[in-house]
Design goal:
Number of domains: 2
Number of helices: 17
Order of helices and strands: HHEHHEHHEHEHHHHHHHHEHEH
Largest sheet: 4 strands, parallel
Distance between the termini: 22 Å
Low-confidence stretches: 1-7
Strand content: 5-15%
Shape: globular
Helix content: 55-70%
Structural class: mainly alpha
Strand order of the largest sheet: 2-1-5-6
Amino acid sequence: MSALPQSQMDPSNIEFHRQNPSVSLESHVRQKRVQLGAAVASVQRIYLDLRFWILLRDVSLGRSVDKAPSDLLAFLKSEVSEGRAICPISDTVFIELLKQSDDSTRLATAQLIDELSLGVTLIPFDDRVRQELCNSFYNLAGATDLIPIQELVWTKLAYVLGEVHPTNTHFPPEEELIIQKAFSDHLWKISLSEIAVQFADLPTGRDWDAIAANLNEGNHAHYSMLRSYPQAFRIEFEGGLSLFRNEINALLKEMDQRGYKEFDSKLAHMSHNKRFEAFTLSIPTLYIYASCHAAVRWDWKRKLDGNTLFAFHHAQAALAYCDVFLTEKPLSDMLGLHHLGLTKFKCQSFWSPSAALSWLRENGAANQSSAVN
């Protein structure tokens, strides 16, 4: 990561942090994220999957003159420039961007994302779940000073895959801390265009088609055991939750050390099913994850592939933390199925550029601006 920036760190940042040695790196980064989260919460958040980014990119490059995407792009540019909306991305968009083989179109996509996202991204999937678990557990334990989860899941594009700071340098600890905080300030302003160039040869991860094939095989083998969609949802949710077992144990230990011995008695009067529902909704990323996968398990005609798995990750990011989700028709249709219960998240999904634009024009953000920087 140290090779990422092409420009030098601002000397004034180094001097500022030298004058404020008592602020830890964790506190410094958290303060910046909380300030960003408050700004993001005050504007309309419009999440585009890669299909829509490509549609709009082709308009910006003059490759497409289709009216609906052209009008949509003009509208989004206006809303963003006026401070009424942003189009944030997620780690999934970034990974898919790196999969684009053509350097010029990849860079053009990154430049459009820079313009419409204002450099804002959700924190990675695993980090979102960890933060949701933390807020959920402390809320159930009666903590009253929690920052809303909606303000804790945002960061800048240099951290789209997670936070990385210079460590084990040859400097004394106090000087290394200064460098870490100044480096964080520098990365905060790095554009996706620069990141995309630097990471052009980064491997794009696992074989998602192979993973999907294994999941299809398992779903088929166990289909006869399913009796209802709620059962399929519970299996998927508990399976996803089990991946965070170590984090949950560490969180419970931390809470115990801080004096949170019991969970809030407000759940005591609820039935087991109601308690389960309340808990799952407090972990929205896993809730949406489980809903999407349960929909496939319950409908034996549906099959997963690598692109579907990416689509589900887009849904997890958009529905939980954005107001509008622009995606493909099959996913948009599936998310609207009543038995999935995803309308709880108040995020509007569209696959048609013209339908999306019509809704946005009628339901645009309030006429107020916020400094997202």
